[in-house]
Design a protein that fits this description.
The complex is a heterodimer. By secondary structure, chain A is an all-alpha fold. Chain A has 10 helices and no strands. Chain B is an all-alpha fold. Classes of the chains: A mainly alpha, B mainly alpha. The interface between A and B is large, with 40 and 35 residues.
């Protein structure tokens, strides 16, 4: 979303205010609280401020960088699969994306989050998972169940019996990793809700679902034909990769080895004609 | 007034690159599905994040030293 000058000014002043507020909270907490429990709040407030500043500088709200990728059509993901995927994504970072076919993205997310979590655990010498001593950080840890659970089982009772020079960094890395998993869960939910609603691929064949509806009849529902007004700035190479990825996803979705894109409901392709958007 | 802020060096930000890379990868992967495209935008985000945080760190250290009583 593009921001008008008034919105940019609001984001700029609000961003500066949040960053200053976060710094003040951190300073007050560090000077008054031996456990520095306000640090997490300060970090979150500062991050919000930095995000707003970035949006104000860039003039958009889509993030630090953005690209106008054309929205590709993936097979729609059923509600049951969505719920299962959310649980899986909460348990293991990236598992939700894995079960709906985004394998490369799943591996990337898993490696990024797990590596950050492990680095934090090592920086803190494992002394960052004691719930009785540092329970406030579990507000972040709860968004990433399995790594936190394993860490708590292994090191939940370890005491601070020696000087840990990078203890606060350990808290930072582990809590940020778990909060990033929350972002991954939200992205998975967005993936599921957007699946099957975008424009069809340029080479989409005429397919007939189990109810005998030709895909040509789906034109009225917007499945075929370009809907997006995105400016396609991706390279042709990337576009071919994306087409290839969709073909791979279709191949993975079929259960009988055919590559005509037809799948049963268990694989996430909901062929129920009563489903919204299908005539 | 600026003694503390001036003592802030780039070494103090040595912890930044790994965590900024993780944040950049996860945020760049939103609404994107291709690993190559994600990686390209993540690298760009990574540099912007790191330099942005360093610059703001220096600016904030001056600001906080000015605000807080010694």
């Amino acid at each position: 979303m593009k921001l008008n000058p008034r919105q940019r000014l609001i984001r700029l002043t609000g961003g500066v205010a949040f960053v200053v507020l976060g710094s003040v909270i951190y300073s007050i907490s560090k000077s008054n609280d031996p456990k520095n429990r306000g640090a997490l709040v300060a970090i979150i407030v500062s991050l919000v401020g930095i995000t707003w500043l970035g949006q104000a500088i860039r003039g958009r709200t889509e993030g630090v960088t953005t690209t106008e990728e054309p929205v590709l059509s993936y097979p729609p993901i059923s509600a049951e699969r969505t719920v299962a995927g959310i649980l899986c994504a909460w348990l293991v970072p990236g598992l939700g994306h894995w079960i709906v076919g985004r394998r490369g993205k799943a591996i990337l997310l898993f490696c990024a989050i797990t590596t950050t979590f492990v680095i934090g655990a090592f920086l803190g010498h494992g002394r960052v998972f004691n719930y009785d001593r540092d329970g406030v950080y579990y507000l972040a840890y709860m968004f990433c169940a399995l790594p936190t659970g394993i860490a708590w089982l292994v090191a939940g009772t370890w005491e601070l019996d020696h000087n840990v020079p990078h203890l606060q960094l350990g808290f930072l890395y582990t809590s940020v990793a778990c909060l990033l998993n929350l972002v991954v869960i939200m992205d998975f939910l967005s993936t599921c809700t957007m699946s099957g609603k975008g424009p069809a691929l340029p080479d989409a064949d005429d397919e007939t679902d189990s109810a005998g509806n030709s895909s040509a009849s789906r034109d009225e529902d917007g499945w075929n034909g370009p809907q997006s007004d995105y400016v396609d700035r991706t390279d042709r190479k990337d576009r071919k990769d994306s087409e290839r990825e969709l073909d791979d996803g279709r191949d993975d979705a079929t259960t009988d080895g055919t590559t005509d894109g037809k799948t049963d409901g268990d694989d996430g392709w909901d062929t129920d004609p009563k489903r919204e958007g299908v005539s | 007034m600026t003694i503390l802020a001036a003592s802030l060096t780039l070494l103090d930000f040595a912890f930044l690159p790994p965590i900024c890379l993780a944040i950049a990868l996860v945020t760049a992967s939103a609404h994107r599905n291709e690993v190559r495209v994600i990686a390209r935008h993540a690298v760009r985000s990574w540099f912007v994040l790191m330099f942005g945080i360093v610059l703001f760190g220096f600016a904030l250290s001056f600001l906080m030293e000015w605000i807080l009583p010694s």
